[in-house]
Every structure is written in structure tokens, then in C-alpha cells.
Amino acid sequence: MQKTKQPVLRGGGSINPGGRYWIWYLLPALVLYTLFMAYPMLDSIRISFYEGTTSARTYVGFQNYINLFTDEVYSKRFWNAFGNTWIFFAFHMLLQNVLGMLFAVILTNRTMKGRPFYQTITFLPVTIAVMVTGYLFKMLLNPQFGGYALKDMGLNFLVHPWLGDANTALSVVSLVSVWQWVGIPTMMFVAGLQGVSEDVLEAADIEGCNGWQTFRYIKLPIIMPVVGMIAILTFVNNFNAFDIVYTMTGPDGQPSYATDLIGTLFYRYGIAGEHPVGIPTPGIGAAISTSVFLMLLAGVIPTLRATQGKE
Amino acid sequence: MKKLVALLLVAMLALSMMPAMAENVELTMGSWRSDDAVQVQAMLDKYFEKTGVKITFQPTVPDQYNATLRLQLDNGTGPDLFYSRSYAAGAELFGLGFNMDLSDLPGVKENFTPASIEPFADAEGKVFAVPYAAVNHVVYYNVDTFAKYNLTVPQTFEELLALSQTLKDNGETPFANGIASNWDILECVFSGMVPNYIGGPENRAKYESGEWKMNDENFVAALTDFEKLSKFFPEGFESVTNENGPDMMALGRAVMLIDGSWQSGLLKDTNWGAFAIPAPEGKEPGMCFHPDMGLAGNNATKHPEEVKAFLSWVASPEGAVEVAASLPGGFFPMINAPVELTDPKVNEVLAANQGRVTDARFFWSKLMPMYKVMVEELNALAKGEKTVAEVAEVFAAEQAKTLGQ
User: Fold this and answer.
1) B184 contact residues in A (CB cutoff 8 A)
2) Confidence (pTM)
3) Chain B interface disruption, residue of A144, A158, A274, A275, most B CBs within 10 A
4) Fold entry, domain A63-308
5) Which pLDDT tens digit goes with each residue over A269-296?
6) What is the dihedral angle through the alpha carbons of B193, B198, B201, B202, rounded to the nearest 10 degrees?
7) Is A164's CB within 8 Å of B368's CB?
8) C-alpha closest to that of B237 among B144, B284, B329, B174
9) Which CATH superfamily, name and number, covers B18-134+291-342?
């Protein structure tokens, strides 16, 4: 049986050109990816050189980019959103991921009791829709709604228009997002730490390593690829962030653009148009997304090299 | 067996094609009023029984309507009939050739006043949509709370401020208005106040031509009163959204709410009344009565005759009555014919127009590019971050910039 089938696979029949039968396995994903990911992305680069919408599009060269970076309003909004996105990212990188690591180390500790319970609690917010999280926190943080409950508990000092104050809004939105997503790095670090061999840890014990030394010189180096992966995911996800701001403070990134991220800025200019006229300028939107794409690329490639290169 | 299956399939196919062979025409109607889907569809179903033309109501998420509609029209998948914005936003689509020219549609010129047609006509006077509904901006109040403190409906702005102070002194929150939604503070509150300070359309035109500046004594007076009013907004008004207003009224956490007539339906949990935003002492009272919705026909429709027939029906007194009944309370028909509003409460909102010079939102026609700046400035004024003089200067500078002066 085997002998009769093998030549078909190797020999280059009609569905097996030159023995490259793996093409058929690749094709469905390749077609979908090209059609729905690569093509729109390249097309958005093309659109960034045009003005107007589908029915009336004219080529304007680099004018959209020139406008984006030199026009008083556009450039002010872009750099404001760019700065806010970095702050939003910093919260996730420094707080969410460090907390994730801390939780993972605690959860994987050999003396830890009730691990599945705590693991579930940490992961639970991840399963809630962002819209729901955003709306709940919006009400909780509103002095006219959550504020009443806080006053009943005697916590008057916590009653503040957190999302209406330009000084606190971005930090609060970031913290809510950190609360929601901290389960992801936790789970990934847990998975990584579980892969650390017991023998190595035992040897470290015998050699007299303390907890910190075991973590710093044994566990951390072993899970470094996971750390790199998390860093990249955090970077990419947060530069695409949109939904949490949209639900908590609105598409304008209120108050006074304090929570405006690249994602909301792009949505306003490229997709929805600004209220109340609501006519988008896809060229500017595409110029924003292309600029950010290039910036992301510049950030991701060195990170990948630094953390994944050794494999 | 196989033959039987094949036969069944053919029979099913034939059956499914039956409606298509009948003479029924199916049209779609795009809208931003997803809240009214049930009532509007009921009205359209009645129209179907009468004419055999089936129209399906397909509303989108309100704040994504303009973008969605534009995308559909651009790609040739637009609805046959669609809700049109007034003034520039509506005229833009007409300029691109998406709307039918309805200038000669039977009923339009006969049944609407020129003032009602103007918001739905381009610079040359070509009509791009049938005027459908207008809204006004009023002060809603809790009747029981007013009675509790022996308060009466104020006749002047000074009286409004005085009674707000009385409420505040008694530990009540006078207004449920906030600034978190970033639109109602300008569209409902400030635009609602402005006709009391600048007068009707002919004076608005002076600001639109640049003859009058937006830092003149009229606007300074309006901004000063707005600032005084904002002191009676709730604690944490920076976080209070437009959606919170009716909830706060229902929960008894605020006594008054300045909002659009369309909100009246959401106040059902409050024993409410309504009055016009009062003018300051010595000023002639005005009222913001804003043409909000028009109904347009898609130029690319496959059934232009049926679309025009429907629009013509909407522009007739008979159709206007049906339409008015299907619209939620607070959307007032614009037809120049007596239309009875069944809800007495809603009639109270409409009655606030009586004896007042009415006009559209002052910036909607020509000063729209100032929108974002005005919202930001009003927010800053309410928060106490800027003074009236500073805001008036920014208004005047933006006005000059918008008018290219």
C-alpha cells in the first residue's frame, strides 16, 4: 500500500507540482491573509497619497503627510495622541507586565495554596468584553453614580470626576485597561515558569540561592523569550488601542483630548469623521496609520532581534 | 429517490421566486434614529398596505450614520431613501450627486414654508431632502420638586438663576447637565440660550457675514450667563454625560435638565414639565427650533418612481400626519399644515416656542468649522479655567478664521 502511494506524493502529479504538496496546506491561510491583511494594509498606504473618498479620489503625493506634520491642528492632535499612546503603553509595559510577572512567580511558588482559585480571579477580567468593562468603570468613576456608593462607605476623598479631569483621565483609563488585561501576561509567565525544570531549581536550593537569586539568575533567563513576546504583544496591542478609550471617554479622547490615542485619532479622521459633520478624510487617516506602522516596525524589529535571535 | 429530491428542490426554488415575480417593490430606508425603529417600521408597513411598496427601515448606530451612509453611497450600496442632515452636511452629499433633486417634487413647494425648506436646499435653492422633523431645546423640570419649594416657572434668566440658588441652598442639584459628552453643552445648552441674546435669523446672518463679531456685547452677555448657569451643574459635571441627564432626573439627583425635545421620551420616570430657556431681563425672548431631519432619495436607486412617490406622500398633509405619529415625541413635523400631537406633555415642549423668535442652531449653517473650538471653550468656561473675555476673544478669532477674514 505504502509503496504505491508514496510516488504520488513525491512524483509531481497534478495536485503535487514538483513535490511541493505543502502548498495546498499553506494556500487557504495565505489567500485569506493576503486578501484581508496584506492587501488592505498596502492599500491603506496607497490611500495615504490620495484625497477624497471612493467616488472622487485624487492623487496628492505626500500632501497628506505634509498636512499631518505641519498643519497646526493636525500636528497638534497627532503628537498629542502619539504622546498619550506612549503613556498608555508605559502603564501596560511597566505595571501590567511587572504585575503579571509578580503574580506568575507567586502562583508557581511551590508553597502556594489555592492556586487555581487565584489564577481564575486574575484571568477573569480578560473574559469580560471591553465595552462592558469600560461602561462599568465609567459609571463607577462617575461622582453622580459610583460616587454615591463611595460616600455611603465614607470614602468621600475618592469622589472625583476621574474621567472628566484632564490630569487624571489618561492614567485612570490606563489603569482600567491594566486591570482588565493583567491576566494575559500572568498566564504566559506561569506557562513559562512551569517549564523551568525542577532539577535546576533543586540544584539552586542546594547551592544556597535565595528566592531573588533563583528568579534573577535562573527563572528569568529561561523565560526570556516569553518576556520578549509579551513585550512585543504589549507594544503592538497598545499602539492599536481604541476600544477602552472609546467606551470610557468617547471618540474625541475627552476631556480636552487628554485620552486621545493614535487609535481614536485615526478613527475620527479616517473612519467616522468629526462630530457633527461626520465626513471622514481617509487620506489623513491612512497617513496616520502608515506613519504609526513605520514607527511600530522600527520598535518591533530591534525587540525581536534582542529577545528571539538566539533561538 | 434522487428524482424526488430534485423535484422538491425545483419546487422550493420556484416558491422562493414567487415574491420576486409579484409586483411588490422593496425599498430600504437608512437612518440614524435606531431608537425609533419599531414605530417607523409600523408606519412604513401601513404605507405598504396602501401602495404595495415595501420599505424596510435600516437604521445604524446614531454617531456612525454619516460615515456609514457615505461609505454605502460611495460604493453604490446606499439605501433607496435616507435621512438627511440639514445645511452643509446634507448639502455636501447632494453636491456629490448622491441625492435626487426634489425641487419639483409635488408637495415640497406647496406644503413647506421657505424657512423650512432653506436648511434642506443648496446655495442655488435646489431641494435635496423633504423637511421631516425639527427639534427645540428646553428646560425640563421636576414638577414635584418645584412644588415642594413653591417655585414657579421663571420668566427671565435672572429668575432662573435665583430659583437655582434656592434649590442649591436647600441641598438640591439644580441641573443635570454635564460636559462629558462633548456636544450637548454647545448644541443644547449654549445654542438654546443664544437666540435670547442675538435674536432671529436676520441677526444670525450678520454674524455669518462677519458684520457682527462674536465678542460683541450679545455674545459676552450670553457667555456670562452661561458661566453663571454652569455654577449650578452637578458635582463632578466634568464626568456627567448626556445619557446621565434623564437618569439623574429619574433618581431625583437633579431638578432641571436643559436638553433637546427628543429627550422628552426618556423622562417618563420623572413627573416633568418643560419651559423655554428664559431670556434675560429686557431682551426679546428667542427659541432654538432646529431643522434636524430631512428625507432624501438616492439618485442611484433602481426604483426612482416609487421613491419619489413615497417622498411626495411624506410632503403631503396626509403623509405628514402618519409620519408625525410614528416619530417619537419631541420630533416636530415641519409641514405647513395643522398636525395634532397626541401626547400633551410633548405639546408642552412644542408650546415653549410660542411667542418667540425661532431660529436654527446659530452655528449650524455657516459657522460649523468652529464647532470643536466652541465646545472646548465652553468646557473651559464651565470648569473655571478661562474667563468670559478670553472665551469671547477665541470665538471672534475663530469666526474670522472660518469666514476667511
Assistant:
1) none
2) 0.85
3) A144
4) MetI-like fold (1.10.3720)
5) 988 888 887 778 889 999 999 999 898 8
6) 180
7) no
8) B174
9) Periplasmic binding protein-like II (3.40.190.10)
